[in-house]
Amino acid sequence: MTDEAQDKLSSYMNRPRAEDVANITAAAESGVRGFRCPKCHCHNFRVVYGVWGDEEKTRRRECRCCGYRFTTVEVAVS
């Protein structure tokens, strides 16, 4: 495969799906709060796995739009 063909394939595979773009647009228009993907700034995630401790929850999340994975840590406020 040539470099040009590989670049085209790579850019095609990293594009968000039409329904993901619609979800992002709807969320932005409705004023959805919460955290966003550090890479593409959407609000659409899935939890890949989580670890629950005594005082905190650690979750590994994956963006459904771009596939970027990141970790969130939730700490109880007393």
Description:
The protein is 31% helix and 29% strand. Strands 1-2-3 form a three-stranded antiparallel sheet, with no helix packed on it. A hairpin with a 5-residue loop joins β2 (56-63) and β3 (69-75). The chain has helices spanning 3-13, 18-30; strands at residues 45-52, 56-63, 69-75. The protein is flat and about 55 Å long. The protein has one domain (3-75). The model has no long low-confidence stretch (mean pLDDT 76). The protein has 78 residues and is of the alpha+beta class. The protein is built from two helices and three strands. The relative contact order is 0.17.
Overall pLDDT confidence: 76
> In terms of structural class, how would the helical and strand content be classed?
alpha+beta
Oligomer: single chain
Query: Main beta sheet: strand number and arrangement?
Result: 3 strands, antiparallel
The count of domains is 1
What general outline do the C-alpha atoms trace?
A: flat
The low-confidence parts are none
How many strand elements?
3
**SSE series:** HHEEE
β content, as a range?
25-35%
Q: How far from one another are the termini? A: 58 Å
Descriptive tags:
single chain, 78 residues, alpha+beta, 2 helices, flat
Quickly describe the structure.
The chain has 78 residues and is of the alpha+beta class. Helices cover 31% and strands 29% of the residues. It has two helices and three strands; from the N terminus they run ααβββ.
